[in-house]
Amino acid sequence: MTTEVQTSITDGVALLTVSNPERRNAMNLELAGMLVAALDAAVADPAVGAVVITGEPPAFCAGGDLAELQGADHERLRAVYSGFLAVAECPLPTIAAVNGAAVGAGLNLALACDMRLAGPGAKFDTRFMPLGIHPGGGYTWMIERALGTQGAKAMTLFCDVLDAAEAERVGLVWRRYDNDESLLAGALELAGRAAAAPRALIETTKATMRITAGPLSHREATEIEVRAQAATVQSEEFQKRVAALQARISKR
C-alpha cells in the first residue's frame, strides 16, 4: 500500500485525504512532506478557496510513526511538525473531517485546522502521557485555545479520551454527523460557503482574525479591521455583489 495525500477539487474546495493505510495514516516524514506539498498546490491554485482534510478510512490519523520517533532529534521532529504547521499557517479556511481515531499527532492535525467536524467513529486521544513522551507540534498551544485550561489539562494530563458526542459537548468539534458520508458532505458544503466568497476577502479576513485573537482591546481590533474593510468596500467584487443583492430585493 502506498503512502500519499490524495487531492480532489470540487466547486472551489480542495479535499486532501492523508493515506498511510498500513499504519492507520500515522504521520511520518514522508506523509508530512506530502501534506505540505498538497497544501502548497491547493493554495497556488486560484480556483481553490477552502480546504478539507480527512483520513483514509477507517482512521483519521493514528498518531506519529513510533519507529521514526524513537531516537528522533530536533530536526527530525521539526520535519514531522511541518505538516501541522502548514495546515495551521494555510491562508485559506481549513476543515478537519475527523472520520476515525485522531491520536497524538493526528489530534495535532485536527487542531491545526480552523474547524473540526466529527463522524460517528471519531475519537480524540492525546496519548502523550501513556507513551511517556512530551507533547509536540504546538499541541499545548492549540489545545489550550480550543478547550481552555481545564479542558486542555483534562485531555493532556488526565488522559481523557473523547468520542464524537463528548467532543461536540465540550466544543472540540463544531458539529458531529451520524455517518461518514454525511460528515464528508457536511464538510464540503461548509467549505464551499467559504470558497464562494472572493478569495482575497476570505484570506484577508482569516489573517485579521489571527491578529485579533491576540491580547488586543476592542478599540485596537476595530482599528485593524477598519483598514481591511475600507479596502474591500472599494473593491469591484463588493460593488458587483451588492448590486446583485439590490436587484434581487427590488424584484420582491
Task: Give me a quick take on this structure.
With 252 residues, this protein is an alpha/beta fold.
Write the layout of secondary structure elements.
Blueprint lengths: L3 E7 L2 E7 L9 H16 L5 E6 L10 H4 L4 H15 L5 E5 L2 E3 L1 H8 L2 E4 L4 E3 L2 H4 L7 H18 L5 E2 H7 L4 E2 L3 H16 L3 H14 L5 H16 L2 H15 L2
Parallel strand pairs: 2-3, 3-4, 4-6, 5-7, 6-9
Antiparallel strand pairs: 1-2, 7-8
Helix pairs in contact: 1-3, 3-4, 4-6, 9-10
How would you explain this protein's 3D organization?
By secondary structure, the chain is α/β, with parallel strands linked by helices. It is 53% helix and 15% strand. The protein contains eleven helices and nine strands. A six-stranded mixed β-sheet has the order 1-2-3-4-6-9, with helices on both faces. Strand 2 (13-19), helix 1 and strand 3 (50-55) form a beta-alpha-beta unit. It is globular. The relative contact order is 0.12.
Features of this protein?
three-stranded mixed beta sheet; 252 residues; six-stranded mixed beta sheet; 11 helices; alpha/beta
User: Whole-number radius of gyration?
Assistant: 19 Å
Number of helices: 11
Strand content: 15-25%
Main β sheet profile: 6 strands, mixed
Low-confidence stretches: none
Structural class: alpha/beta
Mean pLDDT: 93
How far is the N terminus from the C terminus? 57 Å
Tell me the strand order in the biggest sheet. 1-2-3-4-6-9
